[in-house]
Amino acid sequence: MLYVKNLHASINGKEILKGIDLEVRPGEVHAIMGPNGSGKSTLSNVLVGHPAYEVTEGEVTFNGKNLLELAPEDRSHEGMFLSFQYPVEIPGVSMVNFMRAAINEQRKYRNLPPLAANEFLKLMREKRAFVELDSKLANRSVNEGFSGGEKKRNEIFQMAMLEPRLSILDETDSGLDIDALRIVAEGVNKLKTPETSTIVITHYQRLLDYLKPDVVHVLYKGRIVKTAGPELALEIEKRGFDWIKKEVGE
Amino acid sequence: MSSPLGGNEGGRGAAAQYLTLYRECRELIARHSCDVMNALRDEAYSHLEQSGFPTKRVEDYKYTDVEALFAPDCGLNISRLDIPVNPYDVFKCDVPNMSTSLYFMVNDTFYNRALPKATLPDGVILGSLKELSAQHPELVAKHYGQLARTEEDAVTALNTLLAQDGLFVYVPKGVVVEKPIQLVNILRADVNFMANRRVLIIVEDNAQARILACDHTTDEVDFLATQVIEVFVGRGASFEFYELEESTPRTTRLSNLYVQQEADSRVHINDITLVGGTTRNTTRVTLAGRGAHIDLCGMAIADKQQHVDNHTFIDHAVSDCTSHELYKYVLDDEATGAFAGKVLVREGAQHTDSQQTNRNLCLTRQARMYTQPQLEIYADDVKCSHGATVGQLNEDALFYMQQRGISFVEARQLLMRAFVGEVIDGVGLEALRDRLHHLVEKRFRGELGKCGDCTVCK
Questions:
Q1: Which chain B residues in 384-413 lie under 8 Å from chain A, judged by CB atoms?
Q2: pTM given for the model
Q3: Which tens digit of pLDDT belongs to each residue from A142-184?
Q4: DSSP 3-state assignment of A241?
Q5: Whose CA, among A55, B4, B246, B412, lies 20 to 30 Å from A204?
Q6: What is the ipTM of this complex?
Q7: What are the structural domain ranges in chain B?
Q8: Is A48 helix (H, G, I), strand (E, B) or coil?
Q9: Candidates B330, B389, B401, partner chain A, best to mutate (most A CBs within 10 A)
């Protein structure tokens, strides 16, 4: 599904990713862990095409297409979704109008007619239930005045609406209490199919208890320095990252 | 020509041609107008002669060169020749779910030939200022020119000098006009043309009225249009006034709106510039009685070389009044915008609550916005605030929307509409509010502003 080969990227001339190799197959859950500043958020931003980052070297293929040539909206249409670490508030744009525009542009890309108003609202209702999102929130401006937990739930709600092939969850667990974490994680699990994949960026084991990664990577100084099974996350939870830093020669 | 009027030709720049015109056509102008309007002309003449038109050196006009705007030689229709247009044929109002009492002005003449069936409550007078001031001379004379002082503003002086007709609306004490009144102003001419329109509105104590005025242009010539509107709002009365300009890049509009509010009156003004060439709106509100409240709002969407200048002045003359001001601009291409908002809190105007907000988006590096909040406060127990911002579209929000599959172009549209949406949300009439949201959407998509393609009324 996703092949990343020797990916280098920089922001304002400063190189952050220094040769990432990653392969995610359909149905897999990958966790990416690593100390602060190692490049985890940069990797997710680069994959979805954030204009502030410049890819200086390497290849990324998504569903057989050269991802780096696609505009951010087309990456979305191709099935890539980022649950933002800091979801953006958009005053004056209602959730309904926002989601309708998103859904209909995706349908247009796939040569489908726009959804009728009643079908769209029905879909909104159904998907809200996934993350127990209050209907009041759905009638407000995008993320405006939402609490931290509501914003994260709103991210997963949007994911449910757009049904992506690959979801990147960038610290979706940060700022969530235990109940909200469970709701979010269960929402993600319900959306999982044998064809969809997930990349989970996190510092903690607790989200991985729910999402059960197949592969765990450690990103450090812009490179993936260690890749193993789910037991690696447990070990990091116990021992931190210092032992890995030592392994790579520090 | 021997007359009490001085012959200071050429000495007053652009004003000279209008002064000359007046001297030469004084009788003709008067014959096609009415006594009340004629009575103030000579005084207006001397005021205009003294002052000339303001250049950018004049503080109140520092962003719009009025002198230059009046320099071209435009035709006037002093003899009131018939302009061949039947607005009721040309314009069919399709504001959905909104039934209005619809009236037209063609250039500066009230269109009298086919008035709508009597829909106005008893006692309400509405029609041609020229004709009605002949029928109700005392009522009109008591108010005409009382707020619009010719010694204070050259555009008002010019308008008072040359205007021959316009609209008169009178709502007597306690009468509620449920149905909104819609006035469609049509600029129509085959040559470069000047129109001077005059409006007088009296809403007496405890009366209520709502007026929507739409400015349209049907021809591709240069238009120079002035308008002076005087509004008297009595004790406990309520008045809403929506102005919508949807003209052409070749239209220059200079509009002076004067409002005087008595105690416990409520006024909502919303001045919307969707399409125009050069627009200068001056709005002066006097809160003359305790407990009066004004909502003064406006928005402008401008692109290419469009210029929109809103100059507002709110006079808190007495205590316990409130004013709420909100203006928003979206400037694209090389458009320029200006907003000057003066709030005067006079001595003794205690418990004034005044809030002014001006927010602006410049979409390009070439677009220019000038904003000038001015508070002058001579009372000590007041609450006054103001805020002005000039910025760009939020890039984080743009990217967030793109990540969800919304194209860059569409994301921009959503953000721009959201930005000005705040001004429209204050509109009291739901059908009009919906219509304005729709019009703004079309404007941002570039589907408005084609000559003769008026979307409000056609």
A1: 394-397, 399-408, 410
A2: 0.88
A3: 999 998 888 999 999 999 999 999 999 999 888 888 888 888 8
A4: coil
A5: A55
A6: 0.96
A7: 84-444
A8: helix
A9: B401
